[in-house]
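1st attempt posting a full record on here, be nice pls
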Amino acid sequence: MKNKKQTIFAQVWQEVDKKDFYSSSRYGHVRVFFYTYENDDITQIIHSPWEFPVETKHLEVSCQLDNNGTTNGNPYAWNTSFHNVNLDTGNCDRMVKTLRHIERGLAKIEKQIGNIESFEDYVVRVCRSIGVDKFVFPADNSEKFITDSASSAKYRITRMIQDVQDSLSDTELKKAA
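the predicted structure (as tokens):
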């Protein structure tokens, strides 16, 4: 029997955190997590990193936004890392292999099309380097919006960043009133 095709999905979401205990600043994040699904069935998550050239389980791409004015609301602290992982030699080896694979992919893409211009561009390039097939976004009607278009993904990530910025700004306006 022929193996079913598995697809790597990049699931993008946003959040606004509560006020930092140590300061008056609030923070927001845009995060990307990676999943594999069988035959494009978005309801069934299948974690089988052994079939892919990179480890996608627990891999996250993220940025931070804040309302303290130092970054003019722009995303900063772009990061590609692993979270919530039990560390053993095997896991560490796979994670290092994946991060090096991403670094090589980013360098290759940079040679082809130039420097990274934005967080949105960074996300799409990381996704391209690990072979992401589709992007999954929350939709206005509580459904999921799925696209395989990099330009559509960049646009939607830009909108998510704007939503976080607006939420952080609304907090400041309410505080001033």
